[in-house]
Specification:
Distance between the termini: 44 Å
Number of strands: 9
Radius of gyration: 23 Å
Order of helices and strands: HHHEEHHEHHHHEEHEHHHHHHHEEEH
Strand order of the largest sheet: 4-5-3-6
Length: 459
Amino acid sequence: MPSRWHEDCRLCLPSFREGLRTEWLPDAFGAADLLAALSVGRFLASPADVPALITRTPPHRFTVPVGERTREVPLLPPPVNAALHVLTERALRGHRPHPCVHNATRTDWRYRAAYRARSESLTALASDGPRRLLQHLDIENFGPAVRWGVLLGAPWMTDELAHSLRTVHRHTGQCLVHGASWSTRLGSALLAPVDDVVARQAGDSWARWSDGWHVAVRDAHEGERVRQAVTEALTPLGLRLSERKTVLLAPAAVTGGVAANVAGPADEVWRLATLHDDVRRYRYALVRVAPAPDISTALPALVRGRPALLPRAAHYLDGAATTPEGARAFTELLRWASEEGPGHGRNTPFRCGRLLVLAARHPRPRATGPGTRPGPMPRLPPAAPARAGGTRGRDGARSWGGRRSTSPGTRLDGARSVGRGQPAADRHLSMSRLAGPLPGLPPRAPGSRPVPDDRTPRP
């Protein structure tokens, strides 16, 4: 009879699959083996196996673009993230966030729907009668600033989760790892006491996304009172507000900014994005617009200027790779991604990780001259053996924590093949094997959808 742990693994499968869309480093396997192991309860024998899994697959430091800046984050292999995801959902089973909190509220939350609901809430707050100003409050360096003792003292913390998080903290120096779905859930739940303080100050006239609140106030005096109350509530948590981001906003700054609706026909949104150099419109259009020669031609320069758009550019190129302009854009971006020089090396894994998975999905296109057909892509290095995230036996089965998982569609050489036995829900995630890493790339961590989204707010 399946244990409660195995049942929880299956229950968390949809939300973990959703989280794979925003993995920092994509993988040619698309986590198909991992998803199959979760679906049949052959991932790990019990929660007690999680700390050992973390120890066997230590994280790598990884530089990622965040807005106009870069941030170095620990990169945990997807099997570790999957285990922590399940442990987190078990711990938060009884946690009920305030209705004004919009992100990471429950196991089955969806980014796009939650972001849209938050935008609608902010628009309503900005036109709420006498309360026409919005006090924005944002925590300074939330995530890395969370202390171990504070997280351990949360009312929903469990022994099994604490044991595993202690191992993560020992390897990364952080309690919460930026970008991981389980970390987002824990961070949001940790701020529940502050939400209670905001609710006492403003009732339901506020909204929170991640570590940022927008509170409707009548005037600057009321905004200052809310700021002081939140500052006092954060002190026991060892956190403080960002002086730069904590500001009083006029309604137009909200409705024309974070709450602005940029939706529309994708080609028109792209035109407006290029006209106004609007990042939010670029993000919206790139994952929706049909391949077009002018867009493909403009893409390399756009991504060089705004590296955070690379994941969405890869999404666009997934549909444009068979066109001459798309193939040329890919070649230019791959050349940019592997550039050498001061400061370039630390950005290589993020850039090449996106593009090499695209190459695995489309092994034939390459840049060609005007009026010619795309030819074969230049030969890539031989496929690297499977590494972090489990080991494979001679029969191609992958194992985690000593448990073997033979997922359907696994060939004897360890590559994925799409066959009759493979679960339909996972079939779209499978693909060819990824070529070996470029010099300077960390060992590949299996785990995300082939063309993931980025981490910046999406309409």
